[in-house]
Amino acid sequence: MDVINVTADADTFTCNAYLALDGRPTLVDAGAWPGIVDRIREETDELDAVVLTHQHGDHVAELDAVIDAFDPDVYAYGDHPNRTTAVDDGDEVTVGDETFEVVYSPGHADDHVALVSGSTIFCGDVVVHDDGAFDYGSFGRTDRPGRSREELIESIERILSRMPDSVEHMYAGHGGEFHGEVTDVIETALSRAKQREPKYPGE
Asked: Minimal CA–CA distance to 116: which of 125, 103, 129, 127?
């Protein structure tokens, strides 16, 4: 599956927004970069769906602009005025040319989901390959109101229990994408989260 980070060149704070072109053109998260519509149009004239991992501002700020430009179906776990299809834990969604299982994964956000196929995971912010705190296995912030380290730990464990060993492509909401032994990266993140120490100094 051809996956493009369409916010890679953003000049403002945003999540990584991923465009899958093979099969059903699908955007995973809409980001917060005002240039995203033009960037998508460089790759495709059609966008069939947007799937939200969660609804923090850096993931949805440009959703209205994307909808106005392409009129896609919008899949989300949590309520949203533009949601056309609600997803729940265990549901299946098509991203590009692959079928993904929805894995409910709160802790960083109450409405967070990860998407897992036989080869790929879109993990939003629940777990990432690298960020300002750790390389090769980090996890979403849980130090703000409405977030929970304990729930996040349970979510990472749930992802590991349902993710095939064959997954070798990891697309997270922040940091770089990773191709290789994804299970090891996520197990490393889980180990760090279980230490229950502040992720960043001063938390």
From this structure: 103
